[in-house]
Amino acid sequence: MDSVTQAALGAAVAGVVAGRQCSPKVLLAGAALGTLPDLDVLIRYGDPVSDMVKHRGFSHSLLVLLPFSLLLTWLWQKIRPSQNGLSFNRLWLLIAGCLMTHPLLDAFTAYGTQLLWPLPVSVAVSSIFIIDPLYTVPLVVMVLASLLWRRKMAKLCGIGLAISGCYLLWSVVALNIVESRVEQQLANTPLAERPVFITPTPANTVLWRIVVLDGETYWEGLTSLLDSDPTIDFIAKERGQWPWDEKPKHLQMLEQFTHQFVKYEQDGDALLATDLRLGIVDYLPFRFVLAHQTAEGSWMAEHPVQLESPNVRPKHLPALWLRLLGNQDINADLCHVKECPLPPLKSGV
């Protein structure tokens, strides 16, 4: 999630744990602790693919943050033993809560979070977008309100956590509804056993994007919980294949990170790989040049280069809003049907 959300979450957690000892300084400390795991973005691993794959790694691991919180608690008690007003156990619970709720929230997004690093386990529930005001606003409002009504700081922070927590729970319920809808439609079709990826579109949990892998093709569709007709109009798009027998290590890293949800394409003499999970329709921000073709026609791996993200076309913003409200007539405009080689997939194909 974004830094504002994580700071607000950390402040709210700190306020609840501190209870009567809550103060503006406690909220500020909680906000700082809540954003601390994301400082790993300052680490450069040598190339954009490694930076992407290794983000949310050791700094988001519960196996690292738990002992780190104990260390911070011990240091704070040793440096300022009489100025925090909290027992060692309460202070440890506060620090651990602020640090560990950060990766736990991140795990609900589509990116993937290595909660058990160094074990090769990445958790991505994919029920909430990386920026969702409906989750963030209750936290921010209640934290700010607690600064005005200081006698009720802990209570107000708790209310913010409860509202946002209910919204997060709803996102999981909504994901299950969409998963059931997709499963029913793909049953008895050639795509019944194909890998499926489902994620909410930006800043909401009503309109969802579905991607289904099908060899050198992938099918993409949008479905809204407000649709009168639950049938999803899937559009077939070219996924391509890697034309070189050898797979560079960066491509292997990307395929493992995305669970094979990668698009391959050749642009001139360059070979590109694109993460199909993150983004929407043709606005896929994680596109990398991984190899180029020599004058002799052979392929050669090169240092990965991330391409600039395509600009969102203004006309698509109101279209997305209308699609969220259940207008299924604009699917073609959003999915660029003219670029698709195959007709929409219907249940029973």
From TrEMBL:
Keywords: Hydrolase, Membrane, Transmembrane, Transmembrane helix. Pfam families: YdjM. One of its GO terms (molecular function) is hydrolase activity. It comes from the Bacteria. The chain crosses the membrane at residues 58-76, 88-105, 125-149, 156-178. PANTHER family: HYPOTHETICAL MEMBRANE SPANNING PROTEIN (PTHR40031), MEMBRANE-BOUND METAL-DEPENDENT HYDROLASE (PTHR40031:SF1). This is Metal-dependent hydrolase. It comes from Photobacterium atrarenae.
